[in-house]
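Researcher: Can you fold this with BGO in place?
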Amino acid sequence: MEFNVALVGNPNCGKTTLFNALTGANQYVGNWPGVTVEKKTGKLKGHDGVTVVDLPGIYSLSPYTLEEVVARDYLINEHPQAVLNIVDGSNLERNLYLTTQALELGIPTVMAVNMMDVVEKSGDQIDLDALSKSMGCPVVAISALKNTGIDDVVAKLMEVAQSSAEPQRMHRFAADVEESLEQIEAALPADVPAHAKRFFAVKLFERDSKIASHMGATPNVEAIIKASEEAHDDDSESIIVNERYSYITSIIDGCVKHAQNKKEPIS
Ligand code: BGO
């Protein structure tokens, strides 16, 4: 079976170390078309038909940096069969910001929680089953540096890429924002694939300047956005940022147990 896996993660989360562990010496280095951002691809060890595409390290799928645009253009235009999202387990909260956006693309995803050696040393505990349920995708604990969990990642990747089941979207925004996004989804042109409708709706809601180039026709949803901004007394991009952070906080509360409970200061 031949397919592409996109490796997605924040800068410094261990993406290069994982890419090397997955592909070994079987790597090709070039540039992304039209830009001087390095493009690395490699054949998955033991699975010659599977190409791992190392996307630039990014914090978000917004259109503000060249790296973000390269990464999201690849995910939208090339539609890899699977996304391997590597997150730094010792910095889970910050890393999940990108994960929640990537999942909105509706591409089958495996999440690799890296730096587990660091997490274990700190005494923190991550409930991986609870995390998997909250995110709606398989979650595997790894240490790219110590080469642990890599076989599990590969097994899960093969599973999701070959499964015909649509990925489940677990995240629901606040009811009124959800309603605005559903209205925008209903207005999207037919060339937006069903699984990616949420991503496109969020980007239109945020007035993302570059999303129009991925659609045949851009629906006019300004009235929906304005109504939401008036109701929240905030701009639409901040509404989504706040929604995302409160969602991530609730996931972390349910999945992460810190070693030392921070005590309230005695007054
Ligand atoms: C240095 N565990 C631990 N403990 N460290 C890890 C793991 C892991 O599972 N995975 C990666 N690292 P990149 P991006 C370094 O380079 O793969 C470390 O940006 C150092 N270098 O070894 O480059 C990895 O591609 C000197 O650390 O990440 C690397 O995503 C002192 O995380 C860093 C200490 O990994 C980033 C660390 C000269």
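Model: Folded with BGO in place. The mean pLDDT is 95.
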